[in-house]
Amino acid sequence: MQRTLIDGTKPFWAPALAMLCAMAVAGCVTTETHNKTLAELEASKKTSAQLQQQLTGLQKNLDQESTQRVAAEQQAASLAKEREALEARSGQLTNELGNVRGQNKDLEQKLSSGNASAKEEITKLQKQAADLETDTARLAKEREQLRQEQSQLAATLEQERLAKLAKEEEVARLTRTQEELSKSLQDEIAKGNITIQQVQDRLTINMVDRVLFDSGQAQVKPAGVEVLTQVGDVLNKVTDKQIRIEGHTDNVPISSKLQSRYKTNWELSTARATVVVRHLIDRGGVDRQHISAVGYADTHPLASNDSEVGRSSNRRIEIVLYPKDLKEIAGQVKASTAAPK
């Protein structure tokens, strides 16, 4: 009787067992042979047990490999499905790519056909841009010119404003001066010997010659000294005006007895004006830088010299207050308005 293993091979102990059986049948087995045979049989059993264990381990490995193979087959089936889906998607993408290429080709054709008109439009826009840049530069230049003109106009207006303020202030001060003179000389004004006239920024004090001088003389008489003293008390306060003392005569020539001193009315009118200036400076305290003297003889008559009344009016001393340089006055006004209150 022969036995086989699972894998179809015969066990290595099968020949020993067959021999033992044959010897038992023949009845010619010795003790030594018997023992040897038993030992071999025992060894064969151990070897069989070891092989059985190995066989069991191999069976487990085989089962594991079978399980892994099933999982791999399932994974392969899943991958196959995914591949089929990818192939289907690839076909769709191929179709879409073809459509896109067709659309791109159409666009290229349209672009090619419209390129000429587009270039013309670009050229037109570039020209418009250049024109706009030119206009912008011109407007910027005009704006700068307008800004400069506006700045100049503002400066001019400011100067005019300051000049106007200076003028107004000057007229106001001149009015106060007239009021003081009128009050101080009210007696002579009442007699008609002195008149005071203000026209804008000019003040004129007209004195007939008999108030200050005797006929043909250039020395101030005592009554005239008192009058000039009163005038000096007012004029020495005036610092914003130029003061001009004018000597005037009628057209009657200087008498022969006076010609040794005053050859003509020019010398007489100038001498009288100079004497008044000296008196106002020396006794009235008027600043010499603000006062001057001039003789006009008979060249500036107030009335006709055909009558004694007219000639009497023409023989006079005029004290004229007139503006100094308005720029200087405007600067003073600007300084006063800019000063902190």
Description:
This protein has 341 residues and is an alpha+beta fold. It has a domain of 175 residues: 60s Ribosomal Protein L30, Chain: A (2-Layer Sandwich). Helix content is 67%, strand content 11%. The longest helix has 154 residues.
Mean pLDDT: 85
- Spatial strand sequence of the major β-sheet: 1-2-5-3-4
Percent in strands: 5-15%
Largest sheet: 5 strands, mixed
Structural class: alpha+beta
Helix content: 55-70%
Low-confidence regions: none
- Tell me the number of helical segments per DSSP (H or I, 4 or more residues long): 8
Amino-to-carboxy terminus distance: 145 Å
Q: What is the CA-based Rg, rounded? A: 71 Å
The 3D shape can be described as: rod-shaped
CATH topology of the domain at 164-338: 60s Ribosomal Protein L30, Chain: A
- Number of E-state strands: 5
Give helix and strand order, one letter per element, not per position: HHHEEHHEHEHEH
CATH superfamily of the domain at 164-338: OmpA-like domain
Q: Would you identify the CATH architecture of the domain at 164-338? A: 2-Layer Sandwich
What is the C-level CATH assignment of the domain at 164-338?
Answer: Alpha Beta
Task: Label this structure with key terms.
single chain; alpha+beta; rod-shaped; 60s Ribosomal Protein L30, Chain: A; 341 residues
